[in-house]
Fold each of these.
Amino acid sequence: MSPADNPTVEKIPIAISSCLLGEQVRYDGGHKHDRYLTGTLGQWFTYVPLCPEVGIGLGTPREPIRLVQIGDAVRVRGVRDAELDVTDDLEAYADAVADQIAGTCGYVFKRASPSCGMERVKVYTGKGMPSAAGVGAYAGAVMRRFPRLPVEEEGRLNDPVLRENFVERVFVYDRLRALLAAPTPKALIDFHTRHKLLVMAHNQEGYRRLGRIVAQAGRGDLEGTVAAYADLLMETLTRRATRRGHTNVLQHLMGYLKKPLDADDKAELVDVIHQYRAGLVPLVVPMTLLRHHFRRHPHPYVEGQWYLEPHPVELMLRNHV
């Protein structure tokens, strides 16, 4: 049930490039309205629109800008007016809106933008073809200041795996903020316990390292321990969960059903998990069967796992991965 259907459910705040909401703030006076963001995800997210180029006073329409290699540095300069350099202004704007960003659980940037692109932005050298190795000046400053914050570009959200990964991280980050606001050893242990299988699907080494951090809860600097946990958790979740990783978790979950299931049910579950591992069916298929069995045979540990429903089922994100 979305917040629109249930007023008691609060939408999660997400920072976003203003043009993606349909605001006419582009250099040419246009916009890049993304209906998936405003329509589908907009049922669950409330957006904090930010346009750094307008924010630093460039106006609309305006002189187009681009990334330019100047010696060892990359600067943001005007396309027609090479004397226009807004690099420092864009980086300073990230500081100016830091309080607004700090109140969000993610950021969706406009792809390919010299200010907002998070990767593969064209960098011009004056010789030959530009390289696609740059990062927008403002986006880079934001990511350096908020390394835990889930970030993505609207273009990359067309990839089902990247889309599911971003939305999952946003919901985890929302819960993580509550832990950071009121840290206790018990709260950290409970948080980690409920996220174990989710982390396991992403990276086994990260899973083990997080466990070692949690083992320090109650010894010494609690805030430092929780901060280290938060850093590693969000870093680990940026690694895409593979079919192999999910299969490992699915088999782990099946282990809790060995006693109650009969031979036919076990064989069916094994077959469906193998189909998923082979790429024949999406993740939603084995997950639906597992949830069916756990409704019939509840297990307290499994019931508490966020892996079973890391984001609203209405978004159907696991139907495509």
Amino acid sequence: MKLRHYFIWLLWRDLSLAWRNRAGVGVGLIFFILVSSLFPLAINPEPNLLSAIGVAVIWVAILLANLLSLSQIFEADWRDGSLTQLLLLPLPQSLMIAVKVFAHWLTFGVPILLLSPLIALQYQLPESAYVPLLLGLLLGTPILSALGALTSALTLGLDRSGALLALLQLPLCVPILIFGCQAVLLVLGGGSAMPALWLLLVLLLGTWFFMPYVCLLAIKQLF
């Protein structure tokens, strides 16, 4: 079997498992919708105020919702022993890690991209804000998946690892939060979103280059 066949099989496997566990996957998305939708109801519905906080609320809600989805990357495969078998596949182990994280992004990041414009409508963001918002999410959500895989691998096998995972994950996400919000705020201020988007691109390339190897090193410590 050729390398690309293993790639496709592994991606299809993880997507199929996510579909079977769609209730668990959907929890993070429902959480994102609820959290981001409650703010307009709880504060003064003044358009300028809503547009001022809208981008930050969307990004913070995504960061928190992402925490609820991280266990699906490695945890289930670790518990049933599948992770050991996956490491024995005749393909680079780092590629196996990258495929699993890519599958997580497809099941979490892509729905977030589709839902975010609808959420942004509640905050009455101007039309000029939508493109930098979506570009920021397109670059930022894969970084969240990569960092989530890293923290998930580091806490794999620990009892009650959820709190520790959150403590490790959230500080790492601060730069993504800052640059993602700045991409929109710069446009709203009459500037260009490109500086913030370029920084997100650099972070994306850096995290996805190093993440598979660091995750693999952490996982191998369990055997």
Amino acid sequence: MASQKQTGLTLAIIGCGVMCSSILEGVLAATVKQESAGTEPLISNFVATVQSAGSIERLKKQFPSRLKVLQGGNVQAMEEADIIMLGCKPYMAQAVLGAPGVLEALRGKFLISVLVGTTPDKLHDCIYANYIPSGPDDFCYIRRALPNLAASLGESATVAQASGSVAEEGKPLPAHFQAVMDFIFTSIGKIHIVPGDLYDVAGILSGPGAVFTTVAVDGMLDGAVQQGLKRIEAKRILAQALRGLAAILEDGQHPAVLRESASSPRGVTIEGLLSLEEDRVRHAYSKATIRATERSLNM
């Protein structure tokens, strides 16, 4: 249960499951770090809503202080908050955002959605269906973001959409809301802000794309085991090699240049690369990325 309210903004998480718990853990750690440095944190107060008594106990155990947990109580949490993160199941968005009192509770606030396949326009329609606004300030600001599984380790590559709903056209996100979004997602890794028409493909690279590479990892581990190396040792070696590869790519190295520089005449690297090309592995990964993006666009 949260103690005395402090001076910073209040963040409410509506549907605090596994992903939002990882986000909350990172934000709380960043907040404590700011306070320890003598800096007033952007966010000082935290509210989370869940549906079951078991989830309440989970959150109280994981976050024994500074978090106010409500069973249900979505509208109450939105009323108390300045920033609202929507983390419920995508199919629940209509029921959550269309509930009585939500429209008023969100007026002028900032809604960040981490729901898969749910655009800002869809969320806007859930809140404001059949509503005639009296002015532009009647609406809330809406953005969506997609963290990945590495959020729990502080290594997420979060993709965020630069634009909001159609109703926000010509109305930029206020700087203090942008600062809050940056703070939230840099507390669990890095944030990559992209235009709305590129959000789905960028999200595929960040989330499913990282999972796609586990197929390649498993294949190399199987080959190493067949050649006599223990799987646990092979995984340890390969994990470190992939960390190194990630650092090289982040440093600006092009994958083709890297392959060329590592391929000596009649060497082992070129032998393996030719085998991969023979089996059309590059095409398989391109096709998987395209197909997954198309599925995301049609959800």
